[in-house]
Design a protein that fits this description.
Blueprint lengths: L23 E4 L7 E4 L4 E9 L4 E2 L1 E6 L2 E4 L1 E3 L17 E6 L5 E9 L5 E3 L3 E5 L9 E2 L1 H14 L1 H9 L7 E6 L7 H9 L6 E6 L5 H7 L3 E4 L11 E6 L2 E3 L3 H11 L5 E8 L6 E3 L19 E4 H4 L8 H9 L5 E11 L10 H14 L3 E8 L5 E8 L6 E6 L4 E4 L2 E4 H12 L5 E7 L5 H10 L2 E5 L7 H10 L5 E5 L3 E3 L4 H6 L7 E9 L5 E3 L2 E4 L2 E4 L19 E3 L6 E5 H6 L12 H11 L3 E12 L11 H10 L26 E2 L4
Parallel strand pairs: 2-11, 13-14, 13-16, 14-15, 18-21, 24-27, 24-29, 27-28, 31-37
Antiparallel strand pairs: 1-3, 3-4, 3-8, 5-6, 5-9, 7-8, 9-10, 9-11, 12-38, 16-20, 17-21, 18-19, 18-20, 22-23, 25-26, 29-36, 30-37, 31-32, 31-36, 33-34, 35-37
Helix pairs in contact: 7-8, 9-10
Length: 670
């Protein structure tokens, strides 16, 4: 216990004792931080206070917001031994209070024998109803309530902002009730409650819903499918009957347009169902390859009408979004849940055959041919996988750095480099490859000859005394002849023979710069299916999950954009590799693969994880992670302006410790 006779000072939290006007004061710990999430009710504020001049107890009041609580006197056995006390008195104090949700100012008032008040400086704290899921996150429900609390406090500011907006876009909202008018009342009510009301509401239905429209007090235009050309707004929003827009939705869209008037598409997060069974989709920023897995843009989006008119004849919503995003790259994601669906995702109906054709048409338009397959999700909904026919067969240079190790794995004695080369030779269906092996001058001539018998290889020796993986990869790449480089660890075993094709097919899209594979531990759990930067630190998503787990909205089973992929199996164009200077050799062991992906991203190119390319990563499960402080410092210094938030993994709503895609709210954003 810390206790002093100095003047009251604002030290860390409640833990320190304080004194003023001769009082001796101690407050029990409630928090060691100025801003505190209190997750238990009621709260207890306690301590002791003595006026040593009279050996008397001190009257204490606790102010929480506008409420004042008189403290009860309690006995304490932790009083300082240097003070003469009256054993008949109770020097301790205690206040037990229930506090409503929100942020409150708290101060503790001590009244000395002369009637003078001494105040403990104000503290801020916030009460939550649920215990934290972990040290770094709070519940989704709590996050929504906190956001609502703050936004309600900003209502007047929002209204003033709307009044002075320089750009006042008109949103043509099309409510589709053709299949069902279920939930239409709730949908129209949500439109009436929008804070930003520069709206044109249109009802797309075959039924007579005039009574509903009059009940909601909205001016509604009735449309048929071929009447969409008659829309007069600047942007169009398509929602189904039963979808409820958050009252801030159109304001958020309008605010984004005022900040960036050239935006053509704005989308936000959404949720399905109600209560404990509700499900939120916390989306990534613009992810062109993820869009070819399913329509992740969804319903909570507004499209510039002048471009949308070119796509109105598309067969369905997925076709429309695919066509629209081919016309523009001026796309913004708002990381907030701005619409909810009354029904669960599993209850949502979709025309999977029409979606499959829409994706097939996309491949035709972009001169990519192949087969699109519909995959049914066990959690509801569908996603789409594709196996494209490569338009050409470019040379792929597979660069394999090796330490010539022989390991034991589940009872098998494995010569890693020999096994890796043999796997490629015997199992891979793609044949236009060259193998470049970068050794440390510790590969015997006999072992090298054995490897050459399996596959014609080119050997190059790394001769520097200090091991530097980045330097070894650059050395191997320097003699490569292929149009593409495939950087590969030697502790890899193949699962599907067409792994190279499944990675290579993504490079038929000009925006792709790096492609990674799905890597499994030898026990068939996931080691890698994408890398995210959680609090600025690279980490693998969904590590140790089951191989068959489809992941959060299909993130583990279908193509998805990430900020980075692991260098254990990474494909990239050789021209891109050379243009960014290859791997950064200051990062000898750690972070060099992530650094490379970030450098490629600076060119405007995307990284993709392709789970259809599956491999085992044998040694990684038992290897201890070693972090070089100098490499950590270099990486964070180099990318400090980039790694604050990962655009493809929304830290506002997803767990970061570890990054499991579990919906959660992280305290650092409150």
């Amino acid at each position: 216990m810390v206790e002093t006779t100095a003047s009251i000072q604002n030290v860390s939290g409640f833990a320190a004792a304080k004194a003023a006007n001769g009082l001796r004061i101690h407050l029990d710990p409630l928090s060691d931080k100025r801003f505190r999430f209190v997750d238990r009710m009621p709260i207890k504020i306690s301590g002791w206070a003595i006026d040593p001049r009279t050996s008397s107890a001190v009257k204490v009041r606790v102010h929480i917001g506008k409420r004042v609580h008189e403290a009860a006197a309690v006995a304490r056995d932790d009083l300082p031994k240097d003070i003469v006390v009256d054993k008949s008195q109770k020097y301790g104090f205690e206040v037990v209070a229930k506090v409503p949700f929100g942020i409150h100012r708290l101060k503790v008032e001590f009244v000395d024998s002369a009637g003078r008040s001494v105040f403990e400086p104000s503290l801020l704290f916030i009460r939550t109803e649920l215990k934290f899921l972990s040290k770094y996150r709070v519940s989704r429900r709590h996050r929504a309530r906190v956001e609502e609390f703050f936004r309600d406090a900003e209502l007047e500011e929002i209204r003033r902002h709307i009044a002075i907006m320089l750009v006042r876009p008109v949103f043509s909202i099309v409510v589709d009730a053709r299949r069902s008018a279920k939930g239409l009342d709730a949908t129209l009510r949500s439109l009436k409650e929008q804070l930003y009301q520069n709206l044109e509401v249109n009802l797309l239905t075959a039924a007579d819903d005039n009574a509903v429209a009059e009940t909601q007090g909205l001016h509604i235009k009735r449309l048929k499918t071929n009447d969409l050309e008659k829309l007069k707004g600047d942007f169009v929003i398509f929602i189904d009957s039963g979808t409820v827009l958050d009252r801030y939705a159109t304001y958020e869209f309008a605010s984004a347009i005022n900040a960036s008037p050239d935006l053509d598409l704005i989308y936000a997060d959404e949720s399905w169902g109600r209560g404990r069974r509700s499900e939120s989709f916390i989306k990534p920023d613009w992810s062109p390859d993820y869009l070819e897995t399913f329509n992740y843009i969804g319903s909570c989006a507004c499209f510039r009408l002048s471009l949308a008119r070119q796509c109105f004849k598309s067969g369905n919503a997925y076709h429309f979004v695919l066509r629209f995003t081919e016309l523009t790259s001026k796309i913004l994601h708002i990381p907030k849940i701005l619409c909810s669906h009354k029904f669960s995702r599993a209850a949502t109906t979709e025309d999977t055959e029409a979606n499959r054709r829409a994706l097939g048409d996309r491949f035709t338009r972009t001169k990519r041919g192949g087969v699109v397959s519909v995959q049914k999700s066990e959690k509801g909904g569908h996603y789409y996988t594709h196996k494209l026919t490569l338009q050409r067969q470019p040379l792929v240079s597979i660069v394999i750095p090796t330490a010539a190790k022989i390991i034991e794995d589940e009872g098998r004695r494995i010569d890693l480099i020999k096994n890796c080369v043999g796997q490629i030779r015997q199992k891979s269906t793609y044949k236009n490859i060259e193998l470049i092996i970068v050794d440390n001058d510790d590969l015997s001539s006999e072992r090298a000859a054995e490897i050459r018998e399996l596959e014609e290889c080119r050997f190059i020796t790394y001769r520097k005394p200090k091991i530097n993986i980045a330097s070894k990869l650059n050395l191997g790449a320097s003699i490569a002849r292929g149009e593409f480089l495939l950087l590969l660890n030697d502790d890899i075993e193949l699962i599907n023979p067409d792994w190279i094709e499944r990675m290579l097919e993504h490079f038929e899209k000009p925006h792709v710069g790096v492609v990674g594979a799905k890597l499994l531990y030898s026990n068939r759990t996931v080691q890698h299916v994408g890398v995210v930067l959680a609090r600025g630190n690279p980490d693998h998503v969904s590590r140790f999950s089951k191989r068959t787990d489809e992941g959060y909205f299909f993130s583990a089973v279908a193509a998805r954009n990430f900020l980075a992929v692991t260098g254990a199996c990474m494909m990239t164009r050789r021209s891109v590799y050379e243009s960014v200077g290859g791997y950064t050799e200051d990062l000898a062991i750690s972070f060099n693969d992530v650094d490379y992906c970030l450098k490629v991203g600076k060119l405007g190119l995307f990284s993709v994880c392709a789970p259809q390319a599956e491999l085992y990563h044998l040694e990684s499960r038992s290897r201890k992670a070693v972090l070089n402080p100098d490499e950590w410092l270099y990486f964070h210094t180099q990318w400090a302006d980039t790694i604050t938030i990962d655009p493809f993994y929304n830290e506002f709503g997803l767990a970061i410790n570890p990054p499991t895609f579990v919906p959660a709210s992280n305290k650092r954003f409150f």
